[in-house]
Write a structure and sequence with these properties.
It is built from 2 helices and 5 strands. The chain is of the alpha+beta class and 144 residues long. The relative contact order is 0.28.
Amino acid sequence: MLKTGGGKGVVETASGVQGGAGAAVTGTAEPPRDLDLVTVPARQGLEAVDILRLRDGVGPVLHDGACDTLGFLVPPGTADGWDLPGSACTQTYGGGRGSGVPPVAGTGWLVPPEGAFAAATDPAVLRAALGEAARTIEAVDRCC
């Protein structure tokens, strides 16, 4: 599981904790050094990745080693107001910018920065995609 330390806080990074304010997220595929990370169960996250790829575009996405959890990189400051049940949003500091190394220790890329639509996923768009993914999963589970 991605180590997020609960709802809000700081995650363990591949290069340790680095301070400093985050840069604004632009349309490039290379993430800024400081991003927040929204973590969700893998099933819901995979549905959301598909939704985002088909419609609005997805930023870089991490998976944990056991593939139980996915993490969406979102702009810095998102953790301050994130409150979607079933998910957590934490801050990350440093780690993989330009190196190909994920910014959270013990993870790998599901959608690497070079294959992403943007440097980070828009939080409002992600929230909508996660909601749609939850409804899709609920509908499928009722049918089977």
